[in-house]
Amino acid sequence: MNNKPLYVTQPSLPPLEDLQPYLEMIWNNKILTNGGPLHQEFETRLAEYLGVEHVSLFTNCTVALITALQALRVSGEVITTPYSFVATAHSLLWNGLQPVFVDIDPDTFNLDPERIEAAITPQTTAIMPVHCYGNPCDVDRIQKIADVHGLKVIYDAAHAFGVKRNGESILRHGDLSVLSFHATKVFNTFEGGAIVSPDAKTKRRIDFLKNFGFADEVTVVAPGINGKMDELHAAIGLLQLNHVDEAIRKRRDIDMSYRVRFTGLPGIECLDVPKNVEWNYSYFPIRVKPGYRLSRDELYNELKKQGVFSRRYFFPLISDMSMYRGLPSAAMANLPAATMAANEILCLPIFPDMTEADIERVSHVLMNEATTVLE
Ligand code: T4K
User: Which sites are catalytic (predicted)?
Assistant: First the structure.
């Protein structure tokens, strides 16, 4: 029995020797940060890869989300999802904004467009949806609602690197989209993130904001932050771009392998692969239903006992955390689908270097626990 820990993810890394020329370049020209040549090259190549016009690199997605809200001068209340990583809502609090939680669609795990309008008040100025697990939000309906009510839309696209719908980047929707390049993501620069803007003017404002608000050497146009990606992280990003397609292909194979194994397994449901979508297979969430012998948490603990570290993304709901639970929209009765997802979903390990034996090891625990009930 292999007892080596098997984590929910393991970062992909480019070959170490490929980094050497970039290190020499940085060491020779001594430009370490503040929009150096590698930063510029990475922005250009990333925009090409993603099929978008304007990219602004950041130190991480959280600072990028905070800056995106600043760039659009969002105020008052923002409609968002409780079923996300806590950074989504934290970016609102860091801007003095009030999150208004709206329930999710139980099939896509994304904000339910049906429920958005009822949550709009005179104070609402924006919607911040999340493309959860890289599954595209209903961008058309969300945009329609935003247009009718004059709201901004900022997509938390932390999970949506490379995702396309009908052949077009999902990042082209809304007023801004914000990516994460954290170590645990499909595409990583160790830490990192980016904002995708629709036009050069917005990108310019964002670029000022991530550099303390400097518009030129002596002019500060806003209370900006330091959100700049440095040259070393940009170099990693450039190298990762050479391998990301292969990484996504490997993830797709693992995804398929799991699905084949779990077909017909009572009480275990895999998520539907979204239609007309080039997906990135960033996560492998399963629903653990009452028909399974163990509860979701019992399965989580059983896997852990056997060295498999799955994750309950996203439990607890953001709306259940102490700094949010007092909000009227955080009431459990307002969020039945999100509550159910938080109690049923388990994300199994998925990463490009995962072997057949690793997949078998995870599946074995699930199958074994399922068959015990039949004996
Ligand atoms: N919006 C959404 C929707 C997000 O999901 C996130 C982040 C953000 C915004 C904010 O993005 P950033 O500001 O981080 O760019 C992780 C990540 O820290 C977080 O980035 C991510 N979402 C969230 C879903 O997951 P944890 O607490 O699960 O990380 P951790 O350290 O427990 O890592 C999980 C497993 O991965 C470990 O058990 C082992 C493995 N691992 C991890 C790291 C960091 C490695 O093998 N190597 C590593 O370097 O939060």
Answer: 185
Q: Is the dihedral of CA 270, 274, 278, 280 positive or negative?
A: negative
User: CA-to-CA distance for 271 and 292, rounded, in angstroms?
Assistant: 16
Count the alpha carbons within 13 Å of 175 in the hemisphere toward its beta carbon: 22
* Test site for ligand 1: of 12, 156, 184, most ligand atoms within 8 A of the Cβ: 184
Residue 273: band (very low, low, confident or very high) from pLDDT cuts 50, 70, 90? confident
Which tokens belong to 263? 């077909």
Q: Identify whether the C-beta of residue 39 lies closer than 8 Å to the C-beta of residue 211.
A: no
Q: What are phi and psi of 268, to 5 degrees?
A: -115, 125
| For ligand 1, atom 29: residue with the closest CA | 184
Which residue segments constitute the domains of the chain, with CATH numbers given?
Answer: 6-10+244-367 (3.90.1150.10), 16-241 (3.40.640.10)
Q: What atom of ligand 1 comes closest to residue 9's alpha carbon?
A: 36
Known active-site residue 4: no
Q: How confident is the model at residue 370 (pLDDT cuts 50, 70, 90)?
A: low
Confidence of residue 369 (pLDDT cuts 50, 70, 90): confident
Best residue among 13, 85, 309 to mutate for probing ligand 1's pocket (most ligand atoms within 8 Å of CB) is 85
pTM over 0.70: yes
Helical spans, DSSP H, in 178-280: 200-209, 231-241, 244-262
Catalytic position from the list 164, 185, 203, 228: 185
Bridge partner residues of 270 (DSSP): 286
Helix H or strand E segment including 29: helix 16-29
Does the pLDDT of residue 2 top 70, yes or no? no
Strands lying side by side in the sheet with 164-165: 168-169, 164-165, 277-278
Atom of ligand 1 nearest to the CA of 180: 15
Residue 237, pLDDT above cutoff 50 = yes
